[in-house]
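As a warm-up, study this chain.
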Amino acid sequence: MHYLSHYESPLGTMTMAGDGDHLTGLWFDGQKYDRSTITDDAVVQPDLPVFTQTVQWLDAYFEGADPGFTPPIRIEGSDFRKMVTSIMLSIPFGTTSTYARIAAEVARRTGRKQMSAQAVGGAVGRNPITLIVPCHRVVASNGSLRGYAGGVDRKERLLKMEGVNMSDPTTPTTADDGGEMRE
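Now compare it with the structure written out below.
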């Protein structure tokens, strides 16, 4: 059984999907790839603990703070998709990474010489849990924002809200980051 709830964000209505224990989807209504994690039998159930935790996370985030925790999430799909999700979760609030850096990290973890940044882009672009799995923090190597399922304008607003230097979003905002992937 899947459950749904809604959240009114400053950037538009969002829908949360869950299996009762885990958040399985979070998206801006109308965005590309929405509703991919729910079934036709989903029921609205806003008082589930996972939705309460997600609302607390979203409230803190939209107040401009790093929420400091991650609600319980579940990502379906291949090991590759789960690995890309894990890497995205390691991108700190207020910083960005690139598709190429994530591809290099996937290659390192899998013992390959290289990994396609385009393949990484496909996994990033189909992220079912927007914001919490911070696909908006992934930019092109040249600093361009490229696609975002919720719209490039939203991606820019989210990054600005986190304090990312929009004149060069690939530059770390903290001296100790160095642009390296962290786990």
